[in-house]
Design brief:
The strands form 2 sheets. The chain has a 6-stranded mixed β-barrel. The chain is an alpha+beta fold and about 425 residues long. The protein is built from 15 helices and 13 strands.
Length: about 425
């Protein structure tokens, strides 16, 4: 391994035909380079696709009322109904596996906006009635003041938490918002907190135009009575959201006299189902990347093996002379394998460096800007593992030519004029 003469012989053999050596090394280089670039591209695509989830709970279930589609217990189809506070209590008592249960209301309905006034400033924003636990489902960063708490719910306090965009439009730059009042439909609410999004996604700007007030206050201030607009529920870690949905549906269907098979009466959205679909998609993409990458690497390694066979054939006379003067098979085999491993290692290392460099350049250029391609990166451990596998494969690539070289008959080799 550390024999200087052996290394001089390796460099001499490789330099005799520079074009052939370069093309052989390029096949290996291209294999590891393309594997890393595809891995980085897959990582960036996956992050971009998952960016809308951000830190949002991936085991969440949203349920809302729609019109019934089947007659049941003497009631006609097409009947409308509302969730209410007693539904919340019934779900909490009768459905196992619920981690967080948040009844919610929105002023003006889904995506409804309302004029909010502060002095001479007016803006149209979304107003939500929420429980304090909603921050665990859809996290926000309260950078001034605080979020809603249980005392706000119990005391039906007229307080609110506003988004940064709301603050920018209703307050002067540098003005302190905490303790100030805003007017919503003639009702004044005291600002107790201002929030920002902890991550950026396609809807982050719109999410900063929300105003959160206590759920109990919302019902009282805007004459909602005991109406609940929809529910946000999260499942415990060991519970599948789909199973939780079925259990909740059974309870709500019984309470509102809905046919057990009427799937249109209660709308729902299962974040776990969507997240698992996305994960399955990228498992498939990553598998395809590895198949293509390993195939490219194998092509390069096979190229090394073929070239080493040619090298052995060209050096048949030299090998015969070495065996005639006493060289043992091990020295012949180790020489060929070392040449193969050296060529593969150098080409693989250069491919590793350039692959990482290209991904870092793309990362700096794209960063957080892309909607569907974000922060491409490479797991360095995987990159090193791939390189080690490549080196081992290079050693095996030289094994067949080495065994052929060791089997050379000295007498026949000396007769060979090639």
């Amino acid at each position: 391994m550390f024999d200087l003469d052996r290394w001089q012989e390796i460099f001499s053999a490789l330099s005799k035909n520079k074009v052939r050596t370069f093309l052989t090394a390029f096949g290996v280089f291209w294999g590891i380079f393309m594997l890393l670039v595809m891995m980085g591209a897959g990582d960036g695509l996956e992050k971009g696709a998952k960016k809308d989830f951000g830190s949002f709970a991936t085991k969440a279930l949203y349920m809302w009322t729609q019109s019934t589609s089947k007659p049941y217990k003497g009631l006609p189809p097409g009947r409308g109904f509302y969730f209410n506070n007693s539904d919340t209590e019934a779900m909490s008592q009768n459905v196992e596996g619920i981690d967080i249960l948040c009844p919610r209301n929105q002023l003006g309905g889904f995506r409804g906006e309302n004029n909010v006034i502060r002095g001479k400033y007016v803006g149209a924003f979304s107003v939500y009635g929420d429980m304090p636990e909603i921050i665990k489902v859809d996290p926000i960063n309260v950078f001034e003041g605080r979020f809603l708490n249980q005392n706000d719910i119990t005391g039906k306090r007229k307080v609110c938490v506003i988004g940064k965009r709301v603050f920018d439009l209703l307050f002067e730059k540098g003005e302190q918002p905490i303790g100030e009042y805003i007017q919503i439909k003639g009702v004044y609410f005291q600002v107790i907190g201002v929030y920002d999004q902890p991550f950026k996604n396609n809807s982050s700007e719109r999410d900063l135009e929300n105003i959160y007030i206590p759920f109990s206050t919302f019902q009282q201030a805007f004459n909602y009575g005991n109406v609940v607009g929809w529910y946000c529920v999260t499942a415990k870690p060991e519970v599948m959201v789909a199973n939780l949905h079925d259990n909740i549906f059974a309870v709500l269907a019984d309470r509102h006299k809905i046919h057990p098979e009427d799937t249109r009466a209660i709308g729902s959205w299962n974040s776990e189902k969507e997240y698992l679909k996305l994960n399955s998609l990228f498992i498939g993409i990553n598998f395809l990347i590895w198949i293509v990458g390993i195939g490219t690497l194998l092509a390069g390694v096979i190229g090394v093996s073929n070239i080493m066979l040619v090298v052995v054939k060209e050096r048949t006379k030299e090998i015969g002379i070495r065996k005639a003067i006493g060289a043992n098979p091990y020295s012949i085999i180790s020489q060929i394998i070392l040449e193969s491993t050296f060529l593969t290692s150098i080409a693989g290392y250069i491919g590793l460096l350039l692959g990482v460099l290209v991904i870092e350049i793309v990362n700096n250029l794209v960063g957080e800007v892309g909607n569907m391609f974000t922060n491409p990166q490479i797991d360095f451990n995987i990159a090193i593992t791939a390189t080690i596998i490549l080196v081992v494969a290079g050693a095996f690539a030289g094994l067949i030519p080495a065994r052929k070289a060791a089997a050379v008959n000295p007498v026949m080799a000396l007769r060979n004029e090639t």
